[in-house]
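Researcher: I'd like a candidate sequence for this fold, 263 residues long. If you have to choose between options at a position, lean toward the conservative one.
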């Protein structure tokens, strides 16, 4: 039977945490509170409970989906004109959201960058901001990391700015798992994956040798997408890294290749 959770208890608990979280940064950035309170008001307890179970408690959820967060941001921005604020205040807003206690606050920061910065601000500025967010350990789960890769870092790669690749090279060697994972994952959905064959091979070689599961699964995900264009590249990589490749990585990397050979 589906568990809906207790809405009253949910609101009491989330209000306590959110009020503390908002008040901590309210004086530094008064704009975040509007976004955080909107997320709280529209959060669904049943959805929050599902995500909390799915993520095994690694980060708490309010129960707002990505399309809803995007709509709230657009609506609030139309009223308040956040994207017209001086750049330092926008940086403060993004950092304040990233520091938030809830996944949806961090996702709001990511969507803010996608909606109002990507294609408008210098890619190097965005990469420097994200480097700070990782170094300060405000991104610490796979869901936030992967949405950041898809919504922000992938289009920065597609911009062709070489400074983005250079930043990712430093991320790739970083001991912090989520920063290192974010160096590779965005290549899975980039527009011209073949162009980055050498970079993908290098980054994958580094991550597959690490012990953490989420370092290795980043490799499997990117190889799976690369196999659509060049299955030989994927087979060669797997053959050279047998000692480090888990069954999960192999299954993901060969998903499309096996479908084609069986069909």
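Model: Candidate sequence:
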């Amino acid at each position: 039977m589906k568990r809906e959770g207790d809405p009253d208890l949910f609101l009491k608990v989330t209000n306590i945490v959110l009020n503390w979280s908002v008040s901590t940064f309210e004086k530094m950035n008064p704009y975040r509170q509007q976004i955080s309170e909107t997320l709280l008001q529209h959060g669904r307890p049943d959805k929050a409970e599902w995500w909390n179970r799915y993520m095994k408690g690694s980060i708490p959820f309010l129960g707002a989906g990505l399309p809803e967060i995007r709509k709230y941001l657009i609506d609030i921005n139309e009223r308040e004109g956040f994207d017209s604020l001086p750049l330092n205040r926008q940086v403060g807003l993004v950092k304040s959201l990233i520091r938030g206690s809830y996944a949806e606050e961090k996702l709001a920061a990511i969507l803010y960058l996608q909606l109002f910065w990507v294609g408008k601000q210098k890619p190097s500025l965005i990469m420097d901001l994200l480097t700070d967010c990782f170094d300060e350990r405000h991104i610490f789960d796979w869901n936030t990391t992967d949405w950041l890769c898809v919504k922000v870092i992938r289009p920065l790669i597609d911009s062709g700015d070489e400074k983005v690749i250079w930043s990712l090279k430093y991320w790739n060697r970083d001991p912090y798992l989520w920063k290192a994972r974010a160096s590779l994952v965005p290549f899975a959905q980039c527009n011209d994956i073949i162009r980055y064959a050498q970079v993908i091979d290098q980054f994958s070689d580094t991550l597959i040798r690490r012990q953490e599961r989420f370092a290795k699964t980043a490799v499997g995900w990117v190889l799976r997408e690369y196999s659509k264009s060049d299955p030989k590249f994927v087979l060669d990589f797997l053959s050279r890294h047998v000692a480090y490749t888990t069954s999960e990585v192999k299954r993901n990397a060969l998903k499309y290749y096996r479908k084609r050979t069986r069909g």
